[in-house]
Amino acid sequence: MNEKILIIGASGQIGIELTERLRAEYGKEAVVASDVKATTDVDPILLEGPYEVLNILDKEALHSVVKKHNINQVYLLAALLSATAEKNPAFAWELNMNGLFYVLDMAKEGILNKIYWPSSIAVFGPSTPRVMTPQDTIMDPNTVYGISKLAGERWCDYYHQKFNVDVRSIRYPGLIGYKSAPGGGTTDYAVDIFYKALQEGSYTCFLSADTALPMMMMSDAIQATVQLMQSDRSRLTVGGAYNLAGMSFTPASLTTEIQKHLPSFTTHYAPDFRQAIADSWPGSIDDSIAQRDWDWKAEYDTPTLVAKMLEEIKKKI
């Protein structure tokens, strides 16, 4: 069957690079990018193939776009991220959950044959083991974003068990990329810091110096997403979302790595409300199940990530 793919929330941090990758893989016409933003407000990359203005909360519009383009696969990326969601809990819940239901129901009805929906390390919480957090463990999220992602994981597994819906998911760590702006997440300091390092020579971090968090280069996250979606379903043992790991670092250790390239760079620390969010998340992730089930392996570590980010952002600015 020829794949016809719809990416919902394509102008976000993951969406732009995922659109590029999937169009390279399946052909430009086979991948429809969509977002609530008008064509004048999105990255020109998205307009290199079909683009639809779509609000995921408009169920009729979603069905119309799927029908118009004969879509059989959906990547549902539209969501309010951690720090943004805390400011508007009711809308975050509506956006993060109802959109998922609309897509799951379309698969249940046989309209779609495969769904990708991203989860996050935000599903973990204060009682979760912080070091090498296992695939199956205590999950007690205390953020709006984490609660919605945990609920979403359970619904994905439910639809898979009850209705044989092929829905796949990854618990992304903090994602670091240079092709789009940070999207309001707690780990986004690790993108912003590179711009400030190159433009101003110093950075004020909203997390404390020793806050360890799992991170990943965006290209690794894109590779993992495509690899999971292309894997044989019979190999997959996780009905909800897979743990995924790249590297872990603190703001202080990231600063030290940047100083190897920019010796005069300094970071100052002024923790804000995002510190409490970060403190409830793991410091490192065990992704051995993903390695076993679909041969996952990250390409980037901290030194190679820092070198690549500085090189690419220097070109941009």
Q: What does this entry look like structurally?
A:
The chain is α/β, with parallel strands linked by helices and 317 residues long. The chain has two domains: 5-173 and 216-243, 3-Layer(aba) Sandwich (Rossmann fold), CATH 3.40.50.720; 178-215 and 247-284 and 301-316, UDP-galactose 4-epimerase, domain 1, CATH 3.90.25. Helix content is 41%, strand content 15%. The chain has eleven helices and 14 strands. The chain has a six-stranded parallel sheet with strand order 3-2-1-4-5-7, with helices on both faces.
Secondary-structure element pattern, one letter each = EHEEHEHHEEHEEEHEEHEEHEHHH
Count up the domains: 2
- Which homologous superfamily in CATH is the superfamily of the largest domain? NAD(P)-binding Rossmann-like Domain
Instruction: Give the tally of β-strands.
Output: 14
Give the assembly state of these chains: single chain
User: What structural category do the secondary elements indicate?
Assistant: alpha/beta
Q: What CATH architecture of the largest domain do you see?
A: 3-Layer(aba) Sandwich
Highest CATH level, the class of the largest domain: Alpha Beta
* CATH fold description of the largest domain: Rossmann fold
Apparent shape: globular
Radius of gyration: 19 Å
Distance between the termini: 43 Å
Poorly predicted runs: none
Portion of residues in helices?
A: 40-55%
Number of helices: 11
Largest sheet: spatial strand order: 3-2-1-4-5-7
